[in-house]
């Protein structure tokens, strides 16, 4: 182990530590410092001298020893030294009592005999103030307002040894702001307050007071805007500066007088025609008044006075807009109520009455000044009709037709009533609408229309309107005739009356339908011996058709929606008369006649084939009419053959007909016109061969074949 070290000196500069100095010991690598106060001890390992023991109690007596240390161990403790730690620093409580003073206080410090407190501007300017005291508080005065000061304090013991010091920065409160100025905005009723910046001030508060009313404004700049001021009021304005140390005294109050309020109790009177008197009540803080009178044509006049009334000239039919302002040095009062005064209106001019129908007249006129409402009065007929409107036009409806009226337009204003001296204008209404009493047919395309005449000196026009076009007739009596109306057409018939006063409304329309048209074309085709097909073109206006074929032997009839039909029970070889009735949807009928029709001759019966020599065939039949000529046709796979006998005969021969074939035989009457008749009965015969030239004829009908 190393040798025991020797302490040269031990001392305390801080209240929580003691510093020790000793001579170095050869071979020692570390040193252990020990501080004991009887109740506890603190050890600290250091490399070399000097060394400091920390974590000690202030103003406490300690025994200090040192041991040298190396790898071999520790030496014995050195002879001890007694050392007392320094006094603790006083903990300061500091505040600014005013803009030029700072108060400092602290709690008592153990073992302290006295205290030293020093104060100096933190920016280093000026001199330092220092006071020694045995008390625990003191006050520094005559300081600079709004200035930051650094304060340092420490305690000393009975031997005069100083303890730890304590430093604190404190600012003095600011001085009251000066050079307060006001800028008043009369239009917005607000003021901008400004002042010279105060040293050390962080914020400012502006107080604007008037009686019990107080307005405040806070800011960090050197100006502030105070809104919502009242008119006709006097305010006192002061400014206070603030910082973290406190507030200054308020600045000297500055007086602010606002603009006067708008005048009230305004009255307008027309003391005599053409003269207006405007009066009002006195306004607080108002020095003089200006009255503006503007007419609705844009012309404006004004009156400047220190009294409370003004006189103006006026004209009839005008609306005047009147406003009154009060003035003082602060400016013009706000705009108060704008009053209007309307003088009695004049009579409407440029009067016009135009009939839009037989019972409606539209009246127009030029606008007049001051008129809020117009009344149109129509006197005539059975009474008086009124129309009130704000527009310069009025429509009088439901007037009696064919009646004279006196129409007058009066102008009104809510303030002054009406002008009743306006002259009337005479007008007459258009004729009354005629009433159609009867429509009768005078002929195939001639219609007579009758109505009830209800006008004097009127001309009546009757119109038939339909898809086919327009037809007119005119009369001054109670009837007229429509000519050349087309068949199969629907019309709407109405009538109007005309006179110098105008044209009436049309009468109620009466429907009119002409009889349907007869079809132009008809075709008859015989389908079988007893059935004929009839077809025809469309008849305009027709819905159904009845077609009739009639002869002394009987009648065939067909009723159909189509343009064709089949007629049965037709007698062959008979002359028929042809007729057709076209019927409309409402039952109107047109009877149509056409050229006569002759049915075809009757077909022969008992048709038979006989074999002749030389490969010939004789066709035999029983004729229905001995005067009729017939034709026989044979159709087979080996050829077609025909023969026609002389008139009056009932057979004919066909030579060189091939045997061994089946033939279809048709015998039909021969007509003078048209194609051959194909509807006569057909029979099938088989012509067989026997040897080289002899065969037999076999009938092949619906039954089995047989030899003839």
From TrEMBL:
Superkingdom classification of source: Eukaryota
InterPro entries from the UniProt entry: FN3_dom (IPR003961), FN3_sf (IPR036116), Ig-like_fold (IPR013783)
Pfam name, any one: fn3
Domain Fibronectin type-III: 1-88, 89-175, 176-261, 262-346, 430-517
Protein name: FNDC7 protein
Organism for this UniProt entry: Certhia brachydactyla (short-toed tree-creeper)
Gene name per UniProt: Fndc7
């Amino acid at each position: 182990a190393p040798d025991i070290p020797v302490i040269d000196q031990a001392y305390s500069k801080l209240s929580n530590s003691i510093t020790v100095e000793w001579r170095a010991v050869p071979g020692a690598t570390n040193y252990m410092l020990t501080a004991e106060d009887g109740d506890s001890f603190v050890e600290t390992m250091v490399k070399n001298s000097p060394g400091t023991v920390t974590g000690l109690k202030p103003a406490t007596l300690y025994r200090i020893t040192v041991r040298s240390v190396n790898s071999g161990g520790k030496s014995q403790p050195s002879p001890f030294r007694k050392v007392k730690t320094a006094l603790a620093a006083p903990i300061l409580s500091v505040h600014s009592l005013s803009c030029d003073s700072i108060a400092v206080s602290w709690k008592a410090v153990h073992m302290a005999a006295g205290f030293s407190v020093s104060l100096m501007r933190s920016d280093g300017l000026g001199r330092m103030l220092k006071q020694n005291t045995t008390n625990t508080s003191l006050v520094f005065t005559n300081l600079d307002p709004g200035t930051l000061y650094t304060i340092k304090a420490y305690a000393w013991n009975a031997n005069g040894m100083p303890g730890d010091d304590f430093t604190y920065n404190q600012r003095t409160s600011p001085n009251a702001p000066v050079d307060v100025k006001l800028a008043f905005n009369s239009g917005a009723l607000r003021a901008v307050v400004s002042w010279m910046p105060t040293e050390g001030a962080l914020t400012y508060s502006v107080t604007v007071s008037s009686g019990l009313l107080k307005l405040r404004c806070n800011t960090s700049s050197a100006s502030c805007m105070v809104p919502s001021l009242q008119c006709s009021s006097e305010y006192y304005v002061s400014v206070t500066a603030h910082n973290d140390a406190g507030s200054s005294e308020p600045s000297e109050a500055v007086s602010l007088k606002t603009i006067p309020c708008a005048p009230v109790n305004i009255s307008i009177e027309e003391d005599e025609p053409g003269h207006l008197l405007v009066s009002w009540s006195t306004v607080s803080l108002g020095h003089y008044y200006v009255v503006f009178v503007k007419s609705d044509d844009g012309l404006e006049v004004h009156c400047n006075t220190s009294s409370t009334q003004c006189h103006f000239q006026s004209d009839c039919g005008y609306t005047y807009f009147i406003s009154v302002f009060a003035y003082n040095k602060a400016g013009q009062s706000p705009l108060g109520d704008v009053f209007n005064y309307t003088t009695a209106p004049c009579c409407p001019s440029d009067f016009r009455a135009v009939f839009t129908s037989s019972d409606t007249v539209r009246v127009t006129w030029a606008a007049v000044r001051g008129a809020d409402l117009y009344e149109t009065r129509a006197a005539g007929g059975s009474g008086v009709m009124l129309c009130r409107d704000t527009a310069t036009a009025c429509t009088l409806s439901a007037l009696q037709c064919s009646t004279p009226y006196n129409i007058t337009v009066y102008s009104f204003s809510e303030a002054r009533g009406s002008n009743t001296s306006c002259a009337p204008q005479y007008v007459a209404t258009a004729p009354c609408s005629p009433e159609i009493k009867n429509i009768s047919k005078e002929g195939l395309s001639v219609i007579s229309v009758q109505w009830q005449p209800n006008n004097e000196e009127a001309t009546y026009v009757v119109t038939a309107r339909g898809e086919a076009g327009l037809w007119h007739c005119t009369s001054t009596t109670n009837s007229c005739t429509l000519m050349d109306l087309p068949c199969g057409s629907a019309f709407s018939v109405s009538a109007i009356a005309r006179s110098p006063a105008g044209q009436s409304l049309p009468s109620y329309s009466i429907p009119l339908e002409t009889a349907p048209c007869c079809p132009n074309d008809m075709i008859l085709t015989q389908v079988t011996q007893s059935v004929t097909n009839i077809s025809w073109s469309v008849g305009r206006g027709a819905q159904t058709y009845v077609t009739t074929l009639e002869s002394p032997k009987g009648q065939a009839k067909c009723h159909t929606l189509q343009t064709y039909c089949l007629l049965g029970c037709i007698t062959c070889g008979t002359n028929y008369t042809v007729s057709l009735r076209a019927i409309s949807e409402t039952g109107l009928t047109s009877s149509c006649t056409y050229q006569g029709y002759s049915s075809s001759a009757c077909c022969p019966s008992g048709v038979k084939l006989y074999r002749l020599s030389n490969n010939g065939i004789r066709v035999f039949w029983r004729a229905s009419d001995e005067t009729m000529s017939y034709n026989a046709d044979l159709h087979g796979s080996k050829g077609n053959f025909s023969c026609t006998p002389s008139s009056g005969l009932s057979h004919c021969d066909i030579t060189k007909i091939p045997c061994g074939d089946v033939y279809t035989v048709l015998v039909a009457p021969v007509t003078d016109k048209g194609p051959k008749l194909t509807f006569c009965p057909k029979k099938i015969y088989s012509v067989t061969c026997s040897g080289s030239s002899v065969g037999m004829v076999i009938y092949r009908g619906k039954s089995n074949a047989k030899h003839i």
